[in-house]
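Example record

The entry below shows one chain as it appears in the dataset: sequence first, then structure tokens.
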Amino acid sequence: MPPTSTYRLQLQPEFPFAAAERAVPYLAGLGVSHLHLSPVLEAVPGSTHGYDVTDHRSVRGELGGEEGLRALAATARAHGLGLVVDLVPNHMAASPRHNHALRAVLREGPDSPYARWFDIDWRAGDGRVLLPVLPARLPEVRDRFRVSGGSLHLDGQEFPLRAGTEGLPLDELLDAQWYRLGWWRLARTELDYRRFFTISDLIGVRVEDPEVFAASHAKIVELVADGVVEGLRIDHPDGLADPQGYLEDLAAATGGRCWTVVEKILTGQETLPAGWPVAGTTGYDALRQLDGVFTDPVGAGELADVYRESVGKAADRGGHWEATARRAAYEVVGHDLAAETAALTRIAGRICAADPALRDHAPWALRTAIRELLVRVPVYRPYRTGGEEVLTPEAARGAKAAFAVPEEAAAVDLVRDLALGARGDGPEHRAFRARFAQTSSALRAKSVEDTAFYRYTPLLSANEVGGDAGRPAVPVDEFHAYCLRIARDWPDTGTVLSTHDTKRSADVRAAIAVLAQCPEVWADLLAEVAGVPAPDAHVAWTAWQTAFGFGAPDPDRLVPAILKSVREAGLRTSWTEPDAAYERAVAEFAAAGPGRIPLRAASEAAFALEPHIRAHALGAALAQLTMPGVPELYQNTEREYRALVDPDNRAPFTVGPEDERTALVRAALRLRRAHPEAFGAAGTYVPLPAEGPAAAHCLAFARSGRVVTAVTRLSLRLAQAGGWQDTELVLPEGRWADALDGVREFTGGSATEVKLAELFAERPVALLARVE
């Protein structure tokens, strides 16, 4: 049975299995059916997230080990709960000290039985794997090396030594290893192993190899077989060589006993590949729909105009989304992912060298074709089937325009064919196709999520994973169409509003989204705080809007988030090329202004927005809890929860004071557990259109004739237009009880309309349950 709902807990040494076990009675009382745990396998000591896996063979000792996990599962089971676990198949920590498989490869070289675990190009450079771990160039740190216990040590780092080299002089010892220690800055251009995005501390794992899959999944498969784990969240499947093949292997290994969802980011109208043996996604596509349907499209456009006027030259590409995103893609593919494009060029070069008909393709032409095609992939990556719909002839024609000599542009056709698997099926051909797709997903994530979303900031609530900053609003009809499709095709998919990866929690986004209903109020607020000097207009806009969403001055949390935003944007400073003076100015401004001034109480107009922020937050929460799919609550979001980008949103779970959100959550989850058939694969979703002058402000739907959800959308615009007036909603046949207050009843049927002014008299949302 799939879950009826899940609750995500962020495990870490400060919040181990035992702490989660103590929380079980409370979480069971909320009405969830499963606990969703962040990664549980052995990770780098002290890791606060667990995605830096070091050993797939054991459950993480810092969390309480396998004994602690099994104890948690037993306690959860006693309270009617199951466990879902976050699984990380794509990468491990590139830490020779802690990663036993990598350590063996570095000690034994390409003949190591573990060499097949990692995508290392032994033919690049001097035949050794580059470890870009030195804090400076080698001569500057040479005197800090020491040899002890068969290992090489430097500043807390430890590297295994090739057998028989321990007694060599240092220079000879370094040259004799299967690895080359290099300055960390070499990673950008010289790296010769596949990594996670641009993080060289995380090395890619070749789970497409049957032996690697078996070894890296034995423990998880055992936990599934023993009933300890009932569900799996698959982290970053787009990083894998063959996502569908991996998921098929996983389904076979677990015997289909697991509810499995994938962290797949869908773009625009893209849908999950129909052949994947999973229940669906982790829910970012639902998040996009939920955020969008509560965003005013007209006001969002007006806000974008105010942004361009106010920020002006400080905004990248004049504050236009498409141009900003395209520039970011070119920067990332040519700079941050230079090592990845170089690897693709090497593979393509080897294919050409082996084929007399292709030998005259110059490396620079191949590199240009790879770059130009990558930036034109409109989604995260092409797949085994349907790749032609992503790498279109139109994309090829656009890529060819980058060539001054038309004859050289033939490299584009070759690269496109290789990426689609249309030029052979040898090992190098398969490697190119896989690496092109893997690099494509990294490019999309880094250029859109981690760059352009920080450069183009008219409405920060739209700049979320899976979101569309250029089209922040979703019409009601589109929302209903999405829900109908999900109910039909992926009824057990996940839905979310906040996660450990969202840049802003749902409550923060709700406050920011309300600004789209009143661009003039936002412009006035910016004018009121203009006396606080900012380094530039772009950071001022971003910081003040972040502070508005957060709702309360808190420099300890706001300043780090704003500093992260300017580093990710990469306009004036970055993680790898920091401008210390600029960052100091940003920190001082953030502390003196957004971190000190209570912006939402700064004026009567801003304070008047609070009821509308509440309406958005409650409406989105109830819609998520009752729409098609399996809703996930991120830790602490059963009440008002304000959090910014990680690490702010990854603090340990706490039980806090309950509020009206908690009551709403309990009521909705209680209905889901009592009537799983109404919400699952056998259930139905029926849009309920309102009638009357304010009909556009009601979002309503019925689930299998047993539950009705009705929520207010764009409540500020509704108030400005005179309220609900005579707007009505026809409920399905029967008697309907208010599940939130347990008192009111309504009658359904075509002959009986419910006045929305009455339905929403107590609160801006309504949850009705059919009376038997």
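Notes for this example: The chain has a mean pLDDT of 96. Residues 123 and 192 are 9 Å apart (CA to CA).
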